Every structure is written in structure tokens, then in C-alpha cells.
Amino acid sequence: MDRTNQEEYVFGAILHLANKLQMWGDGIIEDITIKQWFLLLLVSKMNIKNPTVKEIADFTGSTRQNTKKILEQLEKKEYVKIIGSKTDERALNVKLTEKTWKYFKANEKKAADSVNKLFTNITDKELIHTCKTLEKLLKVFDITVKLGDAE
Length: 151
Description:
This protein is mainly α. Helices cover 64% and strands 7% of the residues.
């Protein structure tokens, strides 16, 4: 297989894998989708108290509209509270509710066990190499993900 075919394979495999991971994740957790869970997780990692929808969108690499749509779904389920900003009447602040923190705590082990099972057949060396490759691909889009010690 030449380089172009390999690049096309990797590109297609990532897209296909993303779809499969979403379906897999939606089957693991209850009450919310994997995308909703991931958004909550990313908001919880932000160093901003009650970030705006725009700040969350920028942090997650998504559009403001898509981020707001997911947050509105989460608000209906009482995982977040969307509040008008006190400093900018056009902005909306987002606060994670107690329900979110309880959800994280209740599902922490199940999520960790599921992810560990997913990577059962991947060696440490393969995982490190994959992390480095993904990091390079993410840099193309100016995305920096801090993985800690992946080496």
C-alpha cells in the first residue's frame, strides 16, 4: 500500500472509529449520550468558573451553536444550569449542577473499566505510538490535548 492509500485508510478509519465509539459509548452510560458526557467532562476540566457557551465551544473545538444545543439538552435533564451573564447581556454562563458531580462519581468505575476493556489488546508501546501520532494530527488543527505522561 503506498503512502496516499495509507493516509486515506487512516483518515477513513478515524471517521469510522469515531462513529463506532459513539455507538459503543452510548451503550455504556445511562441517561445521557457519550457526546453529552464528554462535554460535561470537558467543562469540568476548564479552569473557568461558570464559563460562557462561547468559552466552552472554543475549549471543545466545536461551534457555539452545536455546543449550545447539547447544553440545552443537558439543562432539560438538569445536568447544567444556563444563566444570563451578569457582565455581558449577550453571553450565557453555564454551571454544572450537583447532579453532574453525582453522575461522574456514580459512573467513574464503570467508565474506566469499559475504556480499559476497549484497550485490552493494545500494548503499552502501541498506545504510546498512537498517542504521539494523534498528537501530531491534532496539531494540524491547533489542538493541544494534555495527556500527562504518555511516555
